[in-house]
Structure formats: structure tokens, C-alpha cells
Amino acid sequence: MFRVSHYLRELAEAERSGQYPLPRRRGAEGATAPERRAAPSPAPAPLGGGRHAAGGAISGPVVIWNLIRRCNLTCQHCYALSADHDYAGELDTGEVFTVMDDLKAFGVPVLILSGGEPLLRPDLFPIAERALAMGFYTGLSTNGTLIDEALADRITATGFDYVGISLDGLRATHDRFRRLAGAFDRSLHAVRLLLARGVKVGLRYTMTASNAPDFEPLLDLMRAEGAPKFYFSHLNYAGRGNIHRAKDAQFAATRAALDTLFDRAWDAAQRGLDEEYVTGNNDADGPWLLLWLQRRHPDLHARFGEALRQRLQAWGGNASGLHVANIDNLGEVHPDTMWWHHALGNVRQRPFSAIWPDTRDALMAGLKQQPRPVGGRCAACQYLAICGGNTRVRAQQLTGDPWAEDPGCYLDDAEIGLAEDRPRVPLSAFGSQRTVKVPVVAG
Ligand code: SF4
């Protein structure tokens, strides 16, 4: 996740005071990837697993937990390929609680409870209440269509730190994406019910070519509704998102959308508005912010561009397998939500705390390596230290090689510091999902 507002608020502060602010400690949503890769370890460190915080506690990754695969919707871009029926073999309440104990001991700071539609899980609230009581920052990721007054009251009483509700466009677009007439009205109603109760609500938007025209109106909607957070997700190549990749927004549209988002976030930062903008699934957004500053605000770039670059390098870009983890509905652990075709182990057989640091898995060894062993234009890119080589699953899905260049990078060769344009991996090189073979080293 790239926290656009975090950097632009610092920049706004620098513009006001003439001094670039000292790095702020991150909140519950965690430290930067390089901090986590490079932190000194007073005690034997888990292999690439985490950072020792003050007092010796190990800080583990943010865990996105797909507690249930069932969903009342069948969205076009769903990475979980969910449908409205039960799936056998999901973790029961007791198993979830056991895993939570292990996650807590491992220093996991954040649980994002997701699905499927997590509100379809009958024990969702006991799980969330326990997570909150244990001190996890606890988020809920929902399509919002099931949230009526009573459920809004229950969500509010539970005390979720954050609720993300997906909106893929305005009414017609959203209903088409969600394959349900009335879905937009129901989700927006949920946003309003929760905001009225003081819950921190964010809009989640995944951009493709066919919903790109709704992006700016959605930003306007966010501001009009008073929602404090907007999550812009680039389309990735997993689940139904993989099937639809040929329709992925082209690079020019992506660049334009990011400019719009940065302009909006900059406006909010300068005015001190309580609006937070974040992006996900394309870590080239970090370098693009630097390039945006150079183009849009050359005076500020001249004064603070180097400070911003250093701050972005401290972030370090893609955090799959490092700072972000995923547990699916069956208990399989993955480097992130887009790697459901690559399981690292199951929490029923082995604790998460043992699975996560285990670099006998070659994919995890590479993800935890710094710099990552990327090839192609990523290897030669001047921004590799900022973006971390971007989204490895996209490289794997389109080439079969998880360490190939990321075909979804929307920066051109001149921007990344290459003298001449060179052939690139096309965005739709393959017609079907490919599975990487990652050997397990005996040990
Ligand atoms: S070329 Fe690769 S390393 Fe450079 S910005 Fe693009 S994705 Fe990141």
C-alpha cells in the first residue's frame, strides 16, 4: 500500500515551515519495508520475518485474512473467484482463535478481515471483538450491500478501527461490475449509515479501462459524503482480475488517474482536510509521485525533491512476503492476496509464525531479499530502491517468471533512466493463469 497522503502532508508541512519534517513513526499500519528488512535484531531474528520493536517484541506483517470465500456477489474483478455458496473446509471459530494467538505472539499489528463477504460469516463479530480486545488494529473489508441499520449498529458497537467499502464507479458502472442491480445504492447507503455512527469508512476503487471515467466523480462523491479515506487499487492479475487483464486501463489512463489522485491529495494536504488517499497493487506509484512533483511543482521539487526521494526509499515499495501477508479461508498462507496459487503452508499444520519466516520457499526467499532479484527493465531502473521491483505476481502471471520485469509498470524507459526504448513484456502475453514452480529446499 502506498500512502499518498502521508508523503503529501509532509510536503505541505515542508512548504509551510521551510523544513522537511522528521520521519513520523508509523501507526498501527506498520513500519516501512526496508526498516523491516534492515532492522537490527537484539535477539535471533526470524528469517526475514519482522522487526524487533522497543522492548523486544517482534513486529510481524499486516495480515489480510479471507475468513470466508462465500460472497453474495460475483464481481468481475474478484481475486478470490467467490460465489454465493458455502465452501468446505474453512477454518472454524476455534481454529481462528488459535491462529490469532499465534499472530499476536508473532507481533502482527493489523488484521484486515475480508472474504468473500466477511459479514456472511456467522462468527465474524466474536472474531472481531476478540481481535480488538487483543489489541490488533482491526479492519473490515466488505462490499457493503448487506449493511442495514441493525448491522451498522453492530459494526459500530464492535469498534472496528476501519471499514473499507468497495465502490467501482457510479450507479450504472458499479452495478455492472458487481453484477447486481441496486448494489451501488446499497453500498452507498452502508457508507452513510456507518459515517453517521462515527465509523471510519473508506471507499475502495479498482480501476480498469471500463470504469476509469467514473474515477473523478467517485473522488467527488467521497468528499461530498465526508468519507475520510479513498483506496485506489490498480487491477492485478489474479482470480477474475486475471481473466479481465486485457481490458486493463492503459498506461496513459493510469498516469492521468494518478495525477488526478495526487492533485486531490495535495489539495487536501494543503488545506489540512481529514482525507486520506492510498493506492495499492502498483508500486510504481512511488516514483510517479516524485515525477508528479517535478512536473506539477518544480519549485517544491527543487527544494524538497531529494528529501521526498529519501523518504520514498525508506518506504521501499512492494511489501508482499515481507510486510503484508495473507491467510485464506482454508488456512493457507500466501505472500499476499494475489498469490492464492502459491501456498506457503497451512496454519492447521504449522503455525503462521513458523511458515512466514521460512525462506526454504524460493519465492519467499526472493521476496525477502534486498534488492529483490528482478530482471529486465526493473533491474536497470533508477527507482528500484523506491518501488522494490513492484508486483511480482503480475510478472509471473504474464511471463511465468516471478522475477521478470513488471509488465504493469506505467513509467516509460526515459523516466526510469534507460537511454533507449527497449521491447517490453506485453500486458496480455498469455491467455490463462500460469503457475510458478518454486522449489522447496530441504533443510
Ligand atoms: S521499471 Fe520496475 S523497478 Fe522501475 S519503477 Fe517500474 S516496476 Fe518499479
Automatic annotation (TrEMBL):
InterPro entries: Aldolase_TIM (IPR013785), Heme_synthase-like (IPR034480), HemeD1_Synth_NirJ (IPR023992), PqqE-like (IPR017200), Radical_SAM_PqqE_MftC-like (IPR050377), rSAM (IPR007197), rSAM_sf (IPR058240). Residues 18-50 are annotated as: Disordered. CDD domains: Radical_SAM. Keywords: 4Fe-4S, Iron, Iron-sulfur, Metal-binding, S-adenosyl-L-methionine. Its cofactor is [4Fe-4S] cluster. Residues 57-271 form the Radical SAM core domain. GO terms for biological process: heme biosynthetic process. Pfam families: Radical_SAM. This is Heme d1 biosynthesis radical SAM protein NirJ. One of its GO terms (molecular function) is catalytic activity.
